[in-house]
């Protein structure tokens, strides 16, 4: 089996998400493709600031900065100091998996390489870009792991919205990929309960743990996959990053980011 894993470079949650997958299936993952979000750094920082606000935003920025510093340390130093990896590249290299950053996954050169590789499975976990049809068709199958119980909360900030709306549970959905984000048929879901003590941070950690478990189960069973079921979505199911008004209401309801 030959798997290509598409993801992004988020340093806080993705390394812990991906490590159990590499532990179980590094021998079948041909490469990791880091497909960064197709917005500018300034636009992304502005959006994140709108979501977290000043206080939580500064704390998140410090955590990101610490991860970058630790990742820059030589060899396994950061792993020995903190007990975990601090970048997608570091955890992939530790398991002998090739990593490549592709700024534009629709670039014809990259598409041709994927077509020549002929992977069995494309696995997407928080990839920042939409995979175009030629890339999807280069493989026998393409599966995305999304951090909500679809069709609810298509889009981003999937740890925020279930808390914002007071849901009793959330989870991870595996679905076949199409050219529309989070819209393909559902293959499997794993849920976990939410409680009053949960924060956005704790939910992201639980999503990482749950998503890793679901990914390992799917790879263990491949090429057999669960039967499809509909993923009937409406425009109301889509949620982007929250802004200042949603953040204000979030705090008023007693929720927290960290």
Automatic annotation (TrEMBL):
A Pfam match: Formyl_trans_N
Keyword Transferase on entry: yes
Keywords: Transferase
Region (Disordered): 226-245
GO cellular component: cytosol
SUPFAM superfamilies registered for this protein in UniProt: Formyltransferase
Molecular function terms from GO: methionyl-tRNA formyltransferase activity
Top-level taxon of origin: Archaea
Domain Formyl transferase N-terminal: 105-217
PANTHER family the record matches: METHIONYL-TRNA FORMYLTRANSFERASE (PTHR11138), METHIONYL-TRNA FORMYLTRANSFERASE, MITOCHONDRIAL (PTHR11138:SF5)
Name used for this protein in its record: Formyl transferase
UniProt source species: Halorientalis persicus
